[in-house]
Each structure stands twice: as structure tokens, then as C-alpha cells.
Design a protein that fits this description.
Blueprint (H helix, E strand, L loop, with lengths): L2 E4 L3 H13 L4 E5 L2 H9 L6 E4 L2 E2 L2 E2 L12 E5 L4 H9 L4 E2 L5 H13 L8 H14 L5 E6 L2 E6 L3 E7 L2 E6 L4 E4 L3 H7 L5 E3 L4 E4 L3 E7 L3 E6 L8 E2 L4 H8 L1
Parallel strand pairs: 1-2, 1-3, 3-6, 6-7
Antiparallel strand pairs: 4-5, 8-9, 10-11, 10-14, 11-12, 13-14, 15-16, 16-17
Length: 249
């Protein structure tokens, strides 16, 4: 089997390559941009399988297929809408969230090997599916929290960030108050608009408008200050930095 990885973050590409090699596969090529991918695919036979990060440094990976026809099976590797994720899986196209879990990777490869490639959707169909599902999803507009014997409603516009601590999940408001929630951070991430919120690491899901300062941090990471809130662990993890930059722009 011939595998090609399209990923603009070279450490992430090397990480995925190592994981594939540990499973007994060989990666034929790593490509790091839309332009590089167009040039390579234009001059080489279609591989059996392509791992694609959707957001690349010079555009979306979908842009590659505006220039070339690719008949390879595709597995996407990034964070996106929950409903689009389900749609891709239903059509035998898998979708791995970063950082990629080895068990999820092994399952995706097994699924690919057991599936007839001709059942896959075309790139344009996938693109339209992603757009339509993200446009039609209704996001959570408010959270209901319990304070003693009282019930309080917090509108989504009042939220500074969500965070996890000591196996619990909290909502922090713009007036710097904290409220305990009955949801996990993963559940919340699937219920709020990813245009407004970004999961910067395992602990924090931050609102775009709450970010007051961004500074360069060690190991190619970024550190954030939020309005009325500073914390040492408000760090954009290295594997999310590129997606974060695209999101914040």
C-alpha cells in the first residue's frame, strides 16, 4: 500500500509517519503545502491512501483538488464539526482528531482495507458535505447552572472560556466568575460554535473575543492572556498552533 501525508506541521507529519510505520505501513511521501501537493500529485501515480490536514499554511487541502484529479482514499486529520465527522465516517472516509490516537489510527486503516474504495465520495461531495453540515448545525446559546438552590442562565456571549480542573468542568464568565458544569469539555466542544471557540489544549476551550494578548512561548507554542483572566497553563499546544493561527485570523 502506498501512503502519502499532506500536513504543513512537519513534527505532526513525522509523528504520523512513525505511528504508521509502527503499524507496519510505509509512507511514500510527506507533503507540506497546497502547492507542493499539487506539484507532487501532478507528477506521480495516485497513492492508495492520503492523510490530509484540512487547513494548510497556504490554503485548504480541498484547493489541491481544484487543480488535479485524485482517486485515492482520503483520511482527514484535524479538528472540525461533530456532524461532519459522523457524515465522513458513514461514507467510509475516516476523520482523526489531533493529537491522533494510535487505536483510532489502527481502526481507520483497518476500515480502509475492508472497504471498497469506489464507495468513497468525491472530493467536491466531501467539501459540500462539510460546508452544509457545519452551516446547518444549531449551537448551544446558553448554559443553565445550579448555585445552591438557585438556577442561573448564562448566555454564550457571557462566556470567557471553559476549562477542566480536578476532573470537573467549569465555565468562566467575562466578569471572572466560575460555575461548575455537568458536561465534559469534550461534550461542550461539540455543542458550541468552533468559529467562536477553540480548544487550545486539553484543559482550555477559549472564546475568540476573550483573547487580549498572544505571546510566543517555548517549544514553538503560544501563550494567551484572556480579558480579566491570566493563567500559566493558557498555552496553545504545539500541534494546535497552526490551526489556532488560521482560526484567529
Amino acid at each position: 500500500m502506498e501512503i502519502v501525508i499532506v500536513e504543513d506541521e512537519k513534527p505532526a507529519a513525522r509523528y504520523l509517519t512513525r505511528k504508521l510505520e509502527n503499524l507496519g505501513y510505509t509512507v511514500k511521501q510527506q507533503l507540506h503545502s497546497v502547492n507542493e501537493a499539487i506539484e507532487w500529485f501532478s507528477n506521480h501515480p495516485n497513492p492508495d491512501l492520503v492523510f490530509l490536514d484540512i487547513q494548510l499554511s497556504d490554503g485548504l487541502s480541498f484547493d489541491i483538488f481544484n487543480e488535479i484529479e485524485l482517486k485515492s482514499a482520503l483520511i482527514f486529520t484535524t479538528a472540525y464539526d461533530e456532524y461532519a465527522l459522523k457524515a465522513f465516517k458513514l461514507n467510509s472516509i475516516d476523520y482523526l482528531l489531533k493529537p491522533i490516537d494510535p487505536d483510532e489510527l489502527a481502526f481507520a486503516l483497518k476500515k480502509f482495507e475492508q472497504t471498497n474504495q469506489q464507495q468513497h465520495l468525491s472530493v467536491n461531495e466531501l467539501k459540500n458535505l462539510l460546508i452544509s453540515t457545519t452551516q446547518t448545525k444549531k449551537y448551544k446559546e446558553r448554559f443553565v447552572v445550579k448555585i445552591g438552590q438557585q438556577i442561573k442562565i448564562i448566555e454564550i456571549g457571557e462566556v470567557l472560556c471553559f476549562y477542566s480542573e480536578n476532573k470537573a468542568t467549569y465555565l468562566k464568565t467575562i466578569d471572572n466568575r466560575d460555575y461548575l458544569l455537568d458536561f465534559s469539555l469534550e461534550n461542550i466542544e461539540n455543542e458550541v460554535s468552533l468559529t467562536d471557540f477553540f480548544r487550545i489544549n486539553r484543559k482550555f476551550l477559549v472564546h475568540r473575543k476573550s483573547i487580549s494578548e498572544i505571546t510566543i512561548y517555548s517549544n514553538s507554542r503560544l501563550k494567551l492572556n484572556l480579558t480579566n483572566f491570566k493563567a500559566d497553563d493558557l498555552i496553545v499546544s504545539r500541534e494546535k498552533v497552526n490551526d489556532f493561527k488560521l482560526w484567529i485570523n
